[in-house]
Amino acid sequence: MSIRDLDLLKRSFHLHYVDFPGTNNNPYLGKKSFDELSDFLLDDLKKIDGQIFCLGHSYGGLFAADMAIQSACDAIICVATSFTQRSLNSGSITNEVLIHAKNTWIERPNDQTFRQWLEAYESFWFATHSRNKGKKLMTSDPVSAQFYIDNEEDILRNESLLKAVSKLKTRKVLIAGEDDGTLSWEQLKADAALGNFEFISIQSASHFVMVDQPVIIANLVERILN
Questions:
Q1: Which helix (H) or strand (E) holds 132?
Q2: Given CB 3.0 to 4.6 Å as the disulfide criterion, which of 79, 120, 168, 225 pairs with 101?
Q3: pLDDT at 33
């Protein structure tokens, strides 16, 4: 749901959206490791003929990177993806609503409190001009809280991926929003340098860059890949 603004790219590419179990109303089937989820993705990519370009947002960017490591794609675009602990902790989040929502989630972890916690990120994840749209997106996102709980630790394995990706000759691009309230674009730029990514920052865009600036991102992706 969070990247469907990139439907614009249907004018240039055949698009394949991948939702893991526990996301976008797919039933949650139990804990799967990052490597197991990556294998599922790899199996899907093997069914596709021709050149394959992987684009992933945030946590999804780690899977795009892993597909490049496994030589399963011809180029990767990671959007607002943190590869180091330093960039993961680089945001300047101070908001009473967010703190309260997080504490409620910690005290009573369930799908409802998880969604409320995500909703509280609205002002940090979306640029001012798309906050209303972002809030609707968060409130309608049927993600499983258990999926997050089971995969939270895997998010911290990023740095080993970055080292492997840095050695690849595959076309690699990391895109960041300059107004991201959760990840500093300067730190993401540092990650990009470590991984030998081409780095591009987008003005008037926060963490959900493709929601804030879908036309700019679509044009950018076409320029990079065509």
A1: helix 131-140
A2: 120
A3: 87
Query: Starting from the edge strand earliest in sequence, which strands make up the sheet with 75-79, in order?
Result: 53-57, 75-79, 171-177, 198-202
pLDDT(144) > 90: no
Q: Are 134 and 211 in contact (CB under 8 A)?
A: yes
- Residue 53, beta-bridge partner list: 75
Report the distance separating Cα 113 and Cα 28, nearest Å.
17
pLDDT score recorded for residue 32 = 87
Which residues are within 8 A (CB) of 10 and not within 5 positions of it... i.e. 6 or more apart? none
Count the domains in the chain.
1
- State the pairing for strand pair 171-177/198-202: parallel
Q: What pLDDT is recorded for position 94?
A: 64
Range of the domain at 42: 4-92+154-225
- The contacts of residue 137 (CB under 8 Å, 6+ apart) are 1, 2, 208, 211
> In 3D, which of 21, 61, 67, 20 has the Cα closest to residue 48?
67
Please indicate, yes or no, if residue 146 is contained in any of the structural domains: no
* C-alpha–C-alpha distance, residues 23 and 59, integer Å: 13
Strand locations in the chain, DSSP E? 53-57, 75-79, 171-177, 198-202
Q: What is the CATH number of the domain that holds 88?
A: 3.40.50.1820
